[in-house]
Design a protein that fits this description.
By secondary structure, the chain is mainly alpha-helical. The chain has helices at residues 3-95, 97-111, 158-164, 166-178, and strands at residues 116-119, 142-147, 153-157.
């Protein structure tokens, strides 16, 4: 074979080998791109799923917080309503002279104290004139019962009685107002 043919054959073989190498590089490059794209897609999906989970948790936290806030506001409104009812009951008791007189007598009799005197408002003296009324008077509705030697005093002014029985009053009023809930 002549030198030219040998060179030509070497060039053809080299070109063929270069073409094969280029083809293998192209195939490897495509495989690497596909593999990288697949990894990127998996990573992307992981990030999206983590974001969705975090968004769902945040949504649940906001809903829970809103529910707690709504319940707190409802309880505050109920409490305000109960306090308003207690206040109105106090006023009605004092305004209705027959009920008020009966209550005063009951509060005095329940004290079961000997050698006592009572303090009432000036305008209430006629309602309890059969009891031993002290010379001093009080300004609030109700009665203060005390031993004459002042060793024992029972403060049964309406405001104080309600304060002492407030827990029971609240429970009873709540049952009446909110029993359907």
């Amino acid at each position: 074979m002549s030198l030219e043919k040998i060179i030509s054959k070497i060039e053809k073989d080299a070109e063929k080998e270069i073409a094969e190498i280029n083809e293998r590089i192209k195939v490897k490059k495509e495989e690497l791109i596909k593999k990288t794209e697949k990894k990127a897609e998996l990573k992307r999906n992981k990030i999206i799923n983590r974001g969705k989970k975090e968004a769902e948790l945040e949504k649940q936290r906001i809903i829970s917080s809103s529910n707690v806030e709504a319940k707190r506001k409802i309880l505050n409104k109920k409490d305000q309503l109960i306090m308003k009812v207690i206040s109105e009951i106090s006023k009605k008791i004092v305004e209705d002279k027959k009920i008020y007189q009966s209550l005063l007598r009951k509060l005095i009799d329940e004290a079961k104290m000997e050698d006592y005197e009572i303090l009432v408002r000036e305008e209430d003296r006629d309602m309890v004139k059969e009891y031993n009324i002290a010379e001093e008077s009080i300004k609030e509705p109700g009665v203060i019962i005390r031993k004459k030697d002042q060793t024992l005093t029972i403060d049964n002014r309406i405001e104080k009685v309600i304060k002492r029985k407030e827990k029971d009053l609240r429970v009873g009023i709540a049952k009446i107002l909110f029993e359907s809930e």
